[in-house]
Fold this sequence. Notes:
Strand 20 and strand 21 form a beta hairpin. The mean pLDDT is 88. Helix 6 packs across helix 8 (282-290) and helix 10 runs antiparallel to helix 11 (314-321). The protein folds into 4 domains: 10-101, Immunoglobulin-like; 134-235 and 347-353, Golgi alpha-mannosidase II (Immunoglobulin-like); 239-345; 364-452. The strands form 5 sheets. Strands 1, 2, 3, 5, 6 and 9 form a 6-stranded antiparallel β-sheet that branches. Strands 10-18-17-13-15 form a 5-stranded antiparallel β-sheet. Strands 19, 20, 21, 22 and 23 form a 5-stranded antiparallel β-sheet that branches. The protein has 456 residues and is of the alpha+beta class. The protein contains 15 helices and 23 strands.
Amino acid sequence: MSDRLPAGLKAVAATGxxxxxxxxxxxxxxxxxxxxxxxxxxxxxxxxxNQKSPHDDGSVVIxxxxxxxxxxxxxxxxxxxxxxxxxxxxxxxxxxxxLRIDVGAAVRELxxxxxxGITGNLTAEATHPTCQNEAAARADGYSITSSTNDTxxxxxxxxxxxxxxxxxNRLRYPLEAAHPGLTTRAAGRVQLELQxxxxxxxxxxxxxxxxxxxxxxxxxxxxxSASLSTAYSGYAQSLAQLQFGVEVLxxxxxxxxxxxxxxxxxxxxxTVVIMDELLTGAGCADAVRSVNVGQVITQxxxxxxxxxxxxxxxLLLAPVVAVGSVLEYFRSSxxxxxDLFNDRAEYQVQIRRTGPTLPSCPDKQQIEAIVRxxxxxxxxxxxxxxxxxxxxxxxxxxxxxxxxxxIESPNNIVGGSAVVRMRNGRWxxxxxxxxxxxxxxxxxxxxxxRAAIACG
Length: 456
C-alpha cells in the first residue's frame, strides 16, 4: 500500500442510507468515499465504531455498494483489539458502512418451528417421467410392480430398441437406490452438472436427487428378475444432512434480508450448488463418505467453508455457525431428520420376466422313441423302459433295456440309464449309459434326475 493518498480524497457521511439487512446494527453512519483520481494502489480505510465490538468473532463486517441504492455486499472487517475501529483494504472507492451482526437473534431462529417449516412437507413437486412404447415393454413375458407409497414416480418403456426404466425422486431429500439387474443409462441432471456430487455413488448403487430423473436399461433373462429399491442410507443419508444444513442457513439469510425464500425447485437448485461447493473441501467430502453425523457437522459447516460456499452472504452466517448451540441444533435436527425420513424413503420397483413353460414329463413310449432315434453306433433297434420316468424342471430319466443292431444274441442286449432334456421345444438325449458319473447329466441335471441316475 502507498502512503500517498489520491487527490481530492474525501468521505461524506449520510443519514438514512444503509443496506437493507435485518438483524444487523450500524456501528457508524454510511459514508461515501470519493476522490478525483482512481487509487494507484490499495488503500486501507479505517472506521471509528460507535460502540466497542468483539475483534475476533467475525460479527463485525463492512457493507459496501457503488451507489446508495445498492446493491450492497459485505466484506470482512479487521477489528482492532480494543474493539474501537474496523479496517478494510480496497482498491476502489464507493459507499461503506460498518455493521455488527446480531448473532444472538440469528441463533434464536434455530428452533423447532424452523425444523418443522423446512421438513413440514417431505414431498417435492417432481415431474412424472414419460416413456415411449409402454405396452411393448410389457410384452415377451415382462411385468412390473411397485410399492404404493409416494416415494418415486416411474415409467417403463422401449426407446432405441431398449427397455428402459425411468424414475423420479418425489421426496425433498436424496435417496440411495440399489438396482441389481439394471444398468444406469443416465444418472440425472444434478450429477451431470455438479462435479463433486457426480463423484459420489457407484455402479451398484445410484443417488436419486429431488426434482431429478434417472434412467436404467432393462434386459432380464426369462425366468429372472431385476429391481430398484430406495432407502435413506449411505451417501443419501449424509447428503440429506448436508442439504438440511444448507437449507437452514439459507432460511437464516432470508431472515437477514439477504436472500429469497428457498422453496421449490429454484430453491433446491440454489441449495445443491452450495452443497457441491462445500464438497470441494476434502474434509467435507470425506465426512459425507463416512456417513458420520458429527463429521458432517464439523467438516462441512466451519466458518471458513461457509464463507467460501456462500460468498459475501457467508459473512452473515460464519459467526452463527461458530456458536456451540448451533452445532448442537444441527446434530439433533440431523437425528430427527432420520427418524422422520426413514420409512418414507423405502420403495421398490420389481421387473420380472416369465420363463418358458416347463414341459410335461415324457411317458415311457416317448422315452423309447427318443432313445431309438439317438444316432448311436451300433444303432439301437429297440428300447424298452424298465422303470418309472423321473422328471424335474425339463429333464427326465429312466432305466432302459436296448437291443443293438448287427450284434449277435445275447450280446446285443444292454441296459443303462437314459437322460433326456427339453431343448427348443423338443426332447433330446443327453446321455445313455450304465455309469454316468462325471457326465453332463450328472453336472447339470436337476436334483431329482441326478438322484435317479445315481450320480453320487
